[in-house]
Amino acid sequence: MAHAYSFPKDFWWGSAVSATQIEGAANEGGKGKNIWDHWYELEPNRFFEEVGPSATSDFYHRYQDDIALMKAIGHNSFRFSISWSRLIPGGEGEVNKEAVAFYNNVIDELIANGIEPFVNLFHFDMPFELQEKGGWENREVVELYAQYAATCYDLFGDRVKKWFTFNEPIVPVEGGYLYDFHYPNIVDARRAFQVAYHTVLAHALAVAAFRTRSIEDGKIGIILNLTPSYPRSDHLGDQKAAAIADLFFNRSFLDAVVLGSFPKELVALLDEYGQLPTYEKEDVALINAQRIDLLGVNYYQPRRVKAKEHLPNPASPFMPEWFFDHYDMPGRKMNHYRGWEIYEKGIYDIMVNLKDNYGNIESFVSENGMGVQNEERFMENGQIQDKYRIEFIKGHLKWLHQAIQEGCNVRGYHLWTFMDNWSWTNAYKNRYGFISVDVQTQKRTPKKSAEWIKAVSQQNGF
Ligand code: BG6
């Protein structure tokens, strides 16, 4: 049957998760502590309903049933992350055999069910001991990360062909060093830029380690949260503000990993304000040589920006917001259940930008999704009737289809997320899954959207 929206052959249909958010078993199987385990001990009140990362959705024990469910709803691919502190407790030294067995089992089970594993190496979960040494501010941690990445390729590269160095590497920079929503809760732009720079360096070293191994058909990439910056108007001030926001929040990482260098305008701006991170000369050639094969794009909502109304006080601490103000566009469509804007065309704009300015790099939507608070209110006959989520996905898929029609090199669509999971300080507040999870009993129930995506995946369109 011909569909109005048919996707290319072998399109990747699936979803994404991360280790800390689904595994649970935080103190089991020889896992070391990561910053989330530590921060929760320190300040449980900063987590929604004081729910911490120790149990989450128990994938560690239930992965077989969960993978069977993935198969049942039509997944042909699935992204998860390896927990650094589970694989190498303390972040350096000996590899934890129980963790190797666990990840081997997950990979084998996925493949046995016809689901391609996409493996991400870092999703916000720095081993605590390494954070104590300065985390990404410390170049030694950068080296240790590259060793950890190499260990993963050697352990799992015979079966895993799609590798990602980081998920949303800018989020720990923003959360941990600028806006105080991740540990270590530092607010200092100069240190934030150092962390960002070292993350790019860590990425480049991990790509270099990948290139020295011959992983048959292997591809290495990164997952970036790209938030297109739209100016309030055509006025120069608004346009400039949007361009600067784009430099800080998108191009900082995107240019470095796809084009091999940081945007000149960003370097000049940081230099002018005395905010450049320290670096070593040979880093430039390393970053330039290690460009990715595959880009994951996480897209939730755009950034709306206008020119600054009041110039910043030069005595105040430097922040990216010195150069633009946020702007709530009147009449914008909202996901009121989460408080985020919905702008489906954003996904198209991102992909066209990748085609026009980034060599049409092979890409896929690695996260897109709709968070909903108190989602049980939509329960009827024992199932969550998440028609809003179906509409949300459809709206984005239509624009993605349009981008593909125009020649964008887009290979797949993964939803955030497979099943409801624990989300950092928001814990279980916003539900995103195709599958609902009863946090008390851990019972899984497919939502309406799970049935819908099954049909879409099987028919490769809708
Ligand atoms: C994504 C992250 O950006 O947002 C996920 O990669 C996170 O890890 C998701 O869970 C949803 O966030 P929130 O705050 O709405 O629960």
UniProtKB/TrEMBL annotation:
What GO annotations for molecular function exist for this entry? hydrolase activity, acting on glycosyl bonds
* UniProt keyword list: Glycosidase, Hydrolase
Q: What is its EC number?
A: 3.2.1.-
Name under which the protein is recorded: Glycoside hydrolase family 1 protein
Protein's UniProt keywords contain Hydrolase: yes
Q: Give the annotated active site.
A: E367
**What Gene3D superfamilies does the record point to?**
Glycosidases
Q: Which family does it belong to?
A: Belongs to the glycosyl hydrolase 1 family.
Q: Does this entry carry the keyword Membrane?
A: no
Q: Which residues cross the membrane?
A: none
